[in-house]
Write a structure and sequence with these properties.
mainly alpha
């Protein structure tokens, strides 16, 4: 009679752990929704340049001066961000006007419902 074993070396144990890990990752990805960038001139170019590597939440939580955004954009370009040189100033203007150091501190959504409400405001 076959008795399933869950010792760490059994194939059943590996499959069980893989299923458990996959479910955990899926649950975590649904419980940490992504923010949206606010509307404005340069939003589409910013999405194209930045959201290839970053979630919008990385951007929306920043509060940087225009000089610091300039350094940040230039650093990302050196690291491989695909930014047309003609769009550089548009990106910096968009980022520094929407996520400047004089804006109020970022407030993370406390629930999925709050995030959904917040994300529909930014469309």
């Amino acid at each position: 009679m076959f008795k399933p074993s869950l010792d760490s070396s059994s194939p059943l144990s590996v499959i069980f752990c893989a299923i458990l890990l996959g479910g955990t990752i899926a649950a975590l990805s649904k419980s940490s929704p992504n923010e949206r960038l606010p509307a404005g001139a340069g939003k589409e170019k910013t999405e194209a340049a930045c959201l290839t590597c970053h979630e919008a939440r990385i951007i929306v939580q920043q509060r940087l001066s225009k000089a610091t955004w300039t350094k940040e954009v230039d650093k990302m370009v050196k690291w491989g961000a695909n930014v047309d040189p003609n769009d550089r100033d548009v990106l910096i203007d968009y980022l520094s006007s929407n996520f400047s150091s004089d804006k109020s501190p970022y407030q993370a959504p406390k629930s999925v419902a709050e995030w959904q409400h917040k994300s529909t405001e930014n469309r």
